[in-house]
Structure to design on (299 residues):
């Protein structure tokens, strides 16, 4: 997590004069600070696999985290979650039931009832399994917020390992991706892309689409044309829409599968992007209103 780039992007957006956006970004800046502090402390992998193995796993679609030995202790993840929850209680404006859930939740005891070994192997499956655990706990009335906090906490322990696993092969797989099947899910943790960025990459002089996973912070290249959910290339069924006055951020959606992907354009042809450093974390927050657009269009 690059806090310098995050701060530069926040400062750039602050010059737009949108106070609501500035407040939202400053709120999330506190969460990113907590995540970064713990990410810096994370042990990471003691031994990284060979480049050959990583590339083989990558192109075979195997989740890289599932191929290595990496675990997080219950008390470590519980402390991160508790700190994030405390920040939300102090800085957020949530309903009383959310506040009470966070205040009385014993994170160590609760996480002890979950399959913690799965958390760093298949994080998406782990969070799904936690949802099932929460269904049997009537005392915790706001399951949705608990999952959000736990997901944010997991990002802190997965971020450094994601870099260890993908950085050694990233330039090579970008070059090879021109003639390869594109990955629709995160190669590190298996998560679905939260957002996409259209623009140039280090290895591709033309426009492409870069996916970003909010769960572990991984980014990877994907073809610009085609639905990443159902793979259709029928351009009559693929659309971009944007909120009036904002041509930089668009909702990409598919008629065939009802899938969508929030997308920002990082290209010189859009002047409004020129002075905004690209931060995936910041863009994720900036494009939050597009989720409401997706609900209106697709429901």
């Amino acid at each position: 997590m690059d806090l310098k780039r995050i701060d530069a992007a926040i400062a750039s957006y602050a010059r737009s004069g949108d106070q609501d956006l500035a407040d939202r970004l400053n709120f999330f800046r506190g969460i990113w600070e907590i995540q970064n502090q713990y990410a810096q402390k994370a042990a990471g992998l003691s031994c990284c696999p060979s480049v050959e193995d990583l590339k083989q796993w990558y192109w075979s679609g195997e989740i890289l985290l599932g191929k290595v030995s990496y675990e997080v202790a219950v008390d470590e993840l519980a402390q991160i979650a508790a700190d994030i929850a405390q920040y939300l209680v102090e800085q957020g404006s949530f309903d009383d039931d959310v506040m009470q859930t966070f205040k009385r939740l014993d994170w160590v005891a609760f996480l002890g009832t979950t399959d913690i070994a799965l958390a760093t192997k298949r994080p998406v499956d782990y969070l799904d399994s936690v949802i099932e655990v929460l269904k049997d706990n009537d005392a915790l009335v706001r399951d949705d917020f608990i999952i959000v906090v736990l997901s944010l906490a997991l990002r802190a322990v997965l971020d450094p390992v994601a870099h260890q696993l993908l950085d050694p092969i990233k330039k090579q797989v970008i070059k090879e991706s021109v003639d390869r099947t594109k990955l629709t899910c995160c190669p590190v943790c298996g998560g679905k892309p939260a957002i996409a960025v259209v623009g140039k990459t280090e290895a591709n002089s033309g426009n492409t689409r870069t996916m970003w996973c909010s769960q572990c912070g991984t980014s990877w290249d994907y073809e610009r044309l085609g639905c990443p959910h159902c793979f259709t290339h029928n351009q009559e069924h693929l659309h971009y829409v944007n909120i009036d006055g904002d041509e930089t951020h668009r909702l990409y959606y598919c008629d065939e599968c009802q899938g969508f992907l929030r997308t920002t354009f990082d290209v010189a042809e859009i002047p409004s992007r020129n002075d905004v450093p690209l931060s995936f974390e910041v863009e994720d927050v900036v494009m939050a209103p597009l989720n409401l657009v997706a609900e209106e269009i697709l429901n």
Residues 143-166 form the longest helix (24 residues). The domain at 181-298 is CATH 3.90.1670.10 (FdhE-like fold). The two ends are 34 Å apart (CA to CA). The chain has twelve helices and six strands.
